[in-house]
Inverse folding.
């Protein structure tokens, strides 16, 4: 199927939408909040947007209810718009959406077996004959449903609520059970409302999925930038801030808790359901984000031997973490594997079912720290590769994140062409375009094995001659020009310099060395890998061919690459919807063998080799 | 042994001290806080008090270090004073003690088996080989001590503390265990410090016992008036306030929690030990105080069928109740039996071991609501009798509580004599003197069976003639004069009126009817009772003979009466020092058969009969 890129502004949200899909459907599916008062039937005319790139002719109904002048200016109804092009969609300001965050993922089948369940109880009314306590009579009702008396327990907030609920509802109540623990008591029969939220807390972004715990239905998806970015962009700077700044840990902890509470509020805002109906949340995060979320000092992760304070799966009281869901709600925290292979990787592995795979698969989540796992149902080995920020466009001369204005893909055709997120004049390059650019330079023989940009007279590939003009000298070093001053949004040229290429070599070298070490640790050859699964935002947007050409992924595997989207989010959802999957996450975390690259024999020379390019 | 009454002012604290005992020892034993800087060796001269009644000649050391003028004014050293008389002791103002609160009790033997225990652990240091998490390595140490891996758990406050403690103490720590739960982690070897506090929360007073959980040693006893008295003196007015006043429950709840936190601070003030070393508290209270302590609406206790919200024993997190002990400390709440037979009664029964007694015993805790239990190891029946406030001196014309100035005992000798708490001119009568007075009137034939004061010419007992002058007419009703205007502290006469006698008849009738109903429910006769145990403050101060003469206690049992002091406090201590005793409390609460007097067949006529006196 053909996909188009639809960018929403303000907010720079990028969706990849299948051709022919209705714009409203695409927005709904992605969980973007937008009002469709008439339900999207084209009657109310309220879902106006301005389509500033990729505008198509209005449909008759739009001609009826939108003035000609407005039609000319690109005003359309989202519910009547079909996605046949890349689109840049401007929303009314109040509908500002979130930044370019990956919220789609491929679901796998599983059995819903929620940690929490609801039971409707008709409790014996108190009388002079039946004068046992409220709690005693409630337990009697549960014992009739098969619970063991001695195991039944509850907590003070429930005991405080119980007398009033019982009397208000004439002893007909719905109990919310977590195992043998009563975590909720609601008047009358409320079995049809039991919600949870799964969270993927990334270093940069937080995504939350509002789920119906009974049906598994996804009711809403919300996302936000991780507000901790104000205290440092990457994991290492967060670790430093938490350990060395006055109240640093508290500030980071409070920021993420506040962000989660805001996302919860946002997720339920459109439903008619109160936050007290959310009884559970699950958390997938990297080890540092995991510790900070829990308010645990992550300092020990930062120094050798990189030991986390806590790796085990945890079930906590939401109130202890000041999470604004039901007062007696639970937080299910997925386990970590090691200091730099966290619960997010466990969630990815859970979502891919690597632990039950007959085939050997390579799972890669590319980022500042790239997590790599290799395995099958036989065994799994994993490592963390310190790639640095090049893939995220940082420390690259013209680099930027994958937001509007970023060149995200580069094509070496008759002349150099590129795509810009949101259309318009480019402002910089993001990681995926860096890959495309360098891959082309490699394929055209413009770079040598060591990554040096050759002089025009050294080029042997005739096609390379087409791009001679792009080879420039800039501030004393070689560079490859992508856009001239007059072609950019800011009037400065956009290019990839020799230094940028060195940065990329370090980054891809770290990842490739990680793969090499894992192959060695597992005892197999690269051709034994049946499938390569690319998880996460960057993995989803990069061009797999470019990744293979530069050697980020072994070229032999190009045809085996599959993008699996936000698999960490999927894993978090699975762990919330199924107690079995949650236990499986624990088993995965325990069974995965962590390989520490820094102490692996000959790692430095493997890394050195991996920074090279394989030239034609 | 001969006892003397020693009253301390300000504060009106009454101690019964064996003749010849050192005053300092008596104060220490009773847990009264007072500074003895030199340890009571008579060297520093700092423990000065003024003895205003019962003063003896100074000893030589006192003559050396106290000026003659001061000696004349009654100044003595507490550490050099022997109790050979009733004493009135004035303390420096800053040493104001608490009101007349019973803090002594007879201990029984038991096995210390604390809920909480400390283990010293030397945890494996992290290395590149042993890079599992802090928590994992801590668990490994515990597994070596016999714990099961899957059962081990802890909570967020411990996880937050763990990394720093481990590093600060180079992986040598002391874990505080509650079952398989790690509730504390302290640097190095701190096994010799593990504290708890047992609380008896009465309607009027709260007593707290600071205990060493390892040795069982009582380190301190503290007490305070229950600050809820500001919102109503008795249980019924508290119930009304909690249910009908705006935020009534919260006000009462906060008041008791604040009082407990103050008592904790007071208890540890003299020790060098911080409150974070207190890991557990136990709570005995009547059902209403129990609910309010927990913040649970007690409304259902107030109305038929008088059902509590919660009777079961509870182990709660101290932090959930905002109790200022260790952040991860536990609260052990003793179970209730019924709406008006609470955890305090369970504690009394636990302290008396009624559940294992071969003999049938009657246990009585006299108060506004008198709790009565009858039983043996075969079975126990219990009830609550609504005696009203007469025993506490309330609703009695000259009545007052058992504080300084109260006539507390009355003797019919050649002429009428009485004792006054603290000595001096009397200000009123307290409950025990009301009993003595009426018992004398019954024995002398001055009252008839129905409680009517007879006219002087109706008296047949020649001894009664001695007290003819005490028989007066006052405001249109008969009365018995105890002290004339010129003999009292306020210039008004003190007497017992016909109405007062009626009040007492209602009170003793309710208690006696309760005993009758329990005998009937148990299926035995009064002579089958082997022992009568009187618990609580009033039970400890009353004259047992008087109680039997007026029929409060069946006269056949007079020789079988034993005072057991603050047995509820003893029970609370047992439940804290021994997990076995705590479980036993649960069994007692489950096994005791509650008898509701109001719905017992023929209760009203039994009560009516019991208001009568048995006249000679």
């Amino acid at each position: 199927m053909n996909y188009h890129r639809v960018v929403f502004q303000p907010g720079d949200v990028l969706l990849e939408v299948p051709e022919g899909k209705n714009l409203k459907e695409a927005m709904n599916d992605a969980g973007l909040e937008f009002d469709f008062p008439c339900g999207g039937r084209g009657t109310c005319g309220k879902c106006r947007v301005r389509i500033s790139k990729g505008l198509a002719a209005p449909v008759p109904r739009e001609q009826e209810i939108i003035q000609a002048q407005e039609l000319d200016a690109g005003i359309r109804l989202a519910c009547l718009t079909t996605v046949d092009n890349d689109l840049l969609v401007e929303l009314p300001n109040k509908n500002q959406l979130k930044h370019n965050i990956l919220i789609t993922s491929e679901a796998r089948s599983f059995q819903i077996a929620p940690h929490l369940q609801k039971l409707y109880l008709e409790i014996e009314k108190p009388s002079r004959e039946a004068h046992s306590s409220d709690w005693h009579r409630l337990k009697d009702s549960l014992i009739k449903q098969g619970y063991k008396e001695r195991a039944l327990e509850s907590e003070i907030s429930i005991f405080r609520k119980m007398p009033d609920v019982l009397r208000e509802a004439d002893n007909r109540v719905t109990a919310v059970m977590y195992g043998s623990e009563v975590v909720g008591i609601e008047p009358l029969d409320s079995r049809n409302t039991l919600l949870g939220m799964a969270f993927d807390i990334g270093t940069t972004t937080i995504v939350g999925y509002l789920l119906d715990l009974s049906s598994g239905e996804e009711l809403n998806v919300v996302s936000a930038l991780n507000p901790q970015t104000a205290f440092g962009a990457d994991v290492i700077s967060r670790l430093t801030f938490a350990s060395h700044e006055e109240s640093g840990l508290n500030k980071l902890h409070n920021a993420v808790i506040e962000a989660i509470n805001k996302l919860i509020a946002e997720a339920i805002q459109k439903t008619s359901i109160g936050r007290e109906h959310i009884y559970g949340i699950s958390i997938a995060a990297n080890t540092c984000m995991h510790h900070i979320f829990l308010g645990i000092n992550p300092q020990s992760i930062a120094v050798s031997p990189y030991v986390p304070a806590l790796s085990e799966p945890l079930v906590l009281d939401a109130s202890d973490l000041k999470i604004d869901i039901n007062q007696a709600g639970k937080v299910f925290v997925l386990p970590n594997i090691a200091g730099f292979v966290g619960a997010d990787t466990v969630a990815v592995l859970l979502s891919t079912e690597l632990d039950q795979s007959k085939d050997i698969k390579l799972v890669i989540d590319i980022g500042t720290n790239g997590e790599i796992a290799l395995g099958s149902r036989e065994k799994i080995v994993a490592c963390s590769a310190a790639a640095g920020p090049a893939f995220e466009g940082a420390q690259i001369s013209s680099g930027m994140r994958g937001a509007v204005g970023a060149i995200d893909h580069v094509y070496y055709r008759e002349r150099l062409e590129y795509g810009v997120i949101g259309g318009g004049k480019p402002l910089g390059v993001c990681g995926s375009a860096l890959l495309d650019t360098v891959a082309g330079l490699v394929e055209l023989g413009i770079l040598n094995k060591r990554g040096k940009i050759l002089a025009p007279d050294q080029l042997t590939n005739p096609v390379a001659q087409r791009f001679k003009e792009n080879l420039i000298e800039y501030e004393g070093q070689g560079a490859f020009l992508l856009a001239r001053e007059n072609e950019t949004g800011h009037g400065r040229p956009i290019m990839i310099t020799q230094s940028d290429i060195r940065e990329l070599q370090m980054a891809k070298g770290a990842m490739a060395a990680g793969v090499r070490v894992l192959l060695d640790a597992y005892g197999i050859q690269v051709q034994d890998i049946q499938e390569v699964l690319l998880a996460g935002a960057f993995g989803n947007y990069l061009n797999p061919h470019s990744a293979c050409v530069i050697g980020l992924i072994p070229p032999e595997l190009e045809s085996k690459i599959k993008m699996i989207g936000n698999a960490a989010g999927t894993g978090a959802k699975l762990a919330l919807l199924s107690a079995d999957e949650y236990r499986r996450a624990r088993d995965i975390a325990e069974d995965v063998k962590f390989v520490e690259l820094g102490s692996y024999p000959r790692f430095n020379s493997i890394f050195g080799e991996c920074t090279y390019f394989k030239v034609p």
Notes: The two ends of chain A are 32 Å apart (CA to CA). The interface with chain B takes residues 126-128, 130-136, 155-157, 159-160, 162-164, 167, 294-297, 299-300, 304-312, 314, 316, 320-321, 336, 338-339, 594, 596, 599 of chain A (CB under 8 Å). Residues 173 and 188 of chain A are 4 Å apart (CA to CA).
